[in-house]
Specification:
binds S-adenosylmethionine, about 270 residues, Rossmann fold, alpha/beta, 2 domains
C-alpha cells in the first residue's frame, strides 16, 4: 500500500491521518506530499492501521501520538491526564503577567501533564513553581515532562491543599475539573477517553472551584492572586463565589473564541 492509499483509506479526518502516518514513519507531515507513491511496509503499515482504527473508535489523537503541543512545549500525555487545551494557554498568559509584576512563588493546583506549571517555569525561569495533583500517575507524567524539558518544579501529591500545611504563595493558578457530572458534553469528542478526575466538578460542575476559592486565602500572601479557568457559562457563578469569599479586583477574561473562560481575584485581607 502506498502513502497516498493509506491516507485515503484510513476513514478518519485526512489531516489527522497525515499526522498519524508522519508520526509512525518518523517524518515531517510535509514529506508525505512528496512521497505519495512510496510503499509503506511493515511494521509501520500495521501500526498506522491500528492507530486509525483506534481513532475511529474515539481514542484522542494526542493519546495516540503520546504528546500535545502547548505554548512552546511538546508535552507527553497519557490516559491519566487531561489533554492540554488552547484555552489554558490564555490562563498561562495571565499567570505570566502576574509573575512579571512580582508574583514569583506560584502554585499550580491540579497540574495534570504539568502544562501550566511547566509553561510558567520555561517562560519565566525566575519563578518558583509548586504543582500538585491527587492522581499519582498524572504527577509521574508531569515529572517526566519536567525531566525532558530540564526544568525544576516542586511536585506534590495532594488532595487540593491537604498536604500543603501553612505554606503560602504569591499566585495560585488552577484549571480544575469544572464539568457537571450530568453534562452531555462528557459523551462528546475526546472527553469520553479523558479521566473523569480531570473533568468532573461534581453535580453542579462548580464543586472543585468552590473548594479552591474557599481555601486559597489560607495559602496566599496579602495582595496575592487566584486565577481560575472555568466553563464558558460559569463566569458569573465564579465571580459571585470569589466575591462572597472576600476577593477583590475580580475580573474575567475571554479566550480566543470570545468566551469568558477564566476569572481571577486578589486577596487583600
Ligand atoms: C482539568 S485537569 C487540568 C490539568 C492541567 N492543569 C491542564 O490545564 O491541562 C484537572 C486536574 O485536577 C486534578 N484533580 C482533580 N481533583 C483533584 C483534587 N481533589 N486534588 C488535586 N488535584 C485534583 C486532576 O487529576 C487533573 O489533573
Amino acid at each position: 500500500m502506498t502513502v497516498r492509499e493509506l491516507i485515503q483509506q484510513a476513514r478518519i479526518d485526512r489531516v489527522e491521518a497525515e499526522i498519524l502516518l508522519a508520526d509512525v514513519l518518523g517524518v515531517e507531515r510535509a514529506w508525505l506530499f512528496a512521497h505519495g507513491e512510496d510503499p509503506v511496509a511493515e511494521p509501520a503499515l500495521n501500526l498506522f492501521t491500528d492507530h486509525a482504527n483506534a481513532r475511529r473508535d474515539g481514542e484522542p489523537l494526542a493519546y495516540l501520538l503520546g504528546y500535545r503541543d502547548f505554548r512552546s512545549l511538546r508535552l507527553g500525555v497519557n490516559r491519566h491526564v487531561l489533554i492540554p487545551r488552547r484555552e489554558t494557554e490564555h490562563l498561562v498568559e495571565w499567570a505570566i503577567e502576574c509573575i512579571d509584576t512580582g508574583a514569583k512563588r506560584v502554585l499550580d493546583l491540579g497540574t495534570g501533564s504539568g502544562a501550566i506549571a511547566l509553561a510558567c517555569k520555561v517562560e519565566r525561569p525566575d519563578a518558583m513553581l509548586t504543582a500538585i495533583d491527587c492522581i499519582v500517575e498524572a504527577l509521574a507524567c508531569a515529572k517526566a515532562n519536567a525531566r525532558s524539558l530540564g526544568v525544576q518544579v516542586e511536585w506534590l501529591e495532594s488532595h487540593w491543599f491537604e498536604q500543603l500545611g501553612v505554606a503560602q504563595w504569591d499566585l495560585v493558578v488552577s484549571n480544575p475539573p469544572y464539568i457537571s457530572a450530568s453534562d452531555a458534553h462528557l459523551q462528546q469528542g475526546d472527553l469520553p477517553a479523558e479521566p473523569d478526575s480531570a473533568l468532573v466538578g461534581g453535580q453542579t460542575g462548580l464543586e472543585s472551584i468552590e473548594h479552591i476559592v474557599e481555601h486559597t486565602p489560607d495559602h496566599l500572601v496579602p495582595g496575592g492572586w487566584l486565577l481560575l479557568e472555568h466553563g464558558f457559562d460559569q463566569a458569573d457563578a465564579v465571580i459571585a463565589c470569589m466575591q462572597d469569599r472576600g476577593f477583590q479586583h475580580i475580573c474575567s477574561r475571554r479566550d480566543w473564541s470570545g468566551q469568558p473562560r477564566m476569572t481571577g481575584g486578589q486577596w487583600q485581607p
